[in-house]
Amino acid sequence: MSISPRMFLMRQAPMPRMQRGTLWIIGSNGLYQCSTLEPPVTTMNRSGIDPVPAGAYRTTLQQSDKHQMSVPLLLDTYPRSAIQIHILNHVGETKGCIGVGVEAPGGLTESQKTFQQFMEHYLSYVQVATPPPLYIIAPGQNVFPPIAVPGLELLFAEQSMPPIESHQVKQ
Question: Which of 144, 132, 164, 155 is nearest to 56 (CA)?
Fold first, then answer.
């Protein structure tokens, strides 16, 4: 059975200094899961840096000058831009990107190792097809019902996926 690759970021309830979540890559090559870290919403932290809004985003591979490596870039993230998935241990190390790692007090640990594992899964799809889209799900939002497949991994139903559309710029 061939499964179109997808990524899901399920955000937890927002915290004053950070936004935690869980990221899954799901497809024919199996299931990968890790923890995420983003800046909190500005109404809580007043920093002026919001996480990218919940929604569906296409991704592409981009060379990051800051990280000196290729990283996934989210496309059509208006009003945000240049949102990447990369190595991140503390929310102060980003201006809005999504960090991956192992959840720890105050941030993430093992971010470099986790990012390498994440990229192995991400690149396994990029090499044979278009990069998997990312669905960011807000806390309490239940729009993608999981299907448990005995003996296999957690899969998401094909029919429950909304189409990937560009976010329209409001004039």
Answer: 164
Residue 121 contacts residue 130 (beta carbons within 8 Å): no
> Residue 80 in 3-state DSSP?
coil
What is the pLDDT confidence band of residue 127, given thresholds at 50, 70 and 90? Answer: confident
Please tell me the distance from the alpha carbon of residue 153 to that of residue 89, in angstroms, as a whole number.
28
Stated pTM of the model: 0.80
Residues 28-56 have pLDDT tens digits of 788 899 999 998 876 554 455 778 888 88
- Residue 111 is inside which H or E element, if any? helix 111-126
Q: Distance (Å, rounded) from C-alpha 62 to C-alpha 74?
A: 10
